[in-house]
Amino acid sequence: MSKIIISDTSCLIALDRIGHIGLLQKVFTTVYTTQIVVEEFERPLPDWILVKDVININRLEQLKLVLDPGEASAISLALETKNPVLIIDEKKGRKIAQELNITIIGTLKVLLIAKNKGVIVSVKQLIDELKKHSFRFNKAVLDEVLRLAGED
């Protein structure tokens, strides 16, 4: 069974700001998100990013008590999806998703997967672009991704 990729807002914004949102399609073909994430993104998303409604509104509302609405909706959607992989970067959201047994990756892992699939040549180059747009990363995670990419 193939994985269903669900994205929170942060990865979409990060890749869009550096002109590489299309990288998600090259790596995963189809990405799902929620209407709340679309609203947080504040721009039209490419048509290969599919919007799904969260069914369990009570769970969504409970998650919104501790997370921002986009993260809460993406986690809720992942909980309602068979075989999901959630792209989420914010520490608190990642922790909650892991506690709920959701497989997670972050934007840096997306870049690593893209390099391993031959979609990009350099992870470090795109990370440097993200840094220019004020995106910050956990140093240990950043170092590990660069090591795995052979760019340390």
Q: Top keywords for this entry?
A:
globular, 152 residues, 53% helix, mainly alpha, three-stranded parallel β-sheet
Quick description:
This protein is mainly α.
Explain how this protein is built:
- The protein has 152 residues and is mainly alpha-helical.
- The chain has nine helices and five strands.
- The strands form two sheets. The protein has a three-stranded parallel β-sheet. The protein has a two-stranded parallel sheet with strand order 2-3.
- The longest helix is centred in the middle third of the chain and has 11 residues, at 69-79.
- The chain starts with a strand and ends with a helix.
- The oligomeric state of the chains shown is single chain
Biggest sheet record:
3 strands, parallel
N→C terminal distance: 34 Å
Order of helices and strands: EHHEHEHHEHEHHH
Radius of gyration (Å): 15 Å
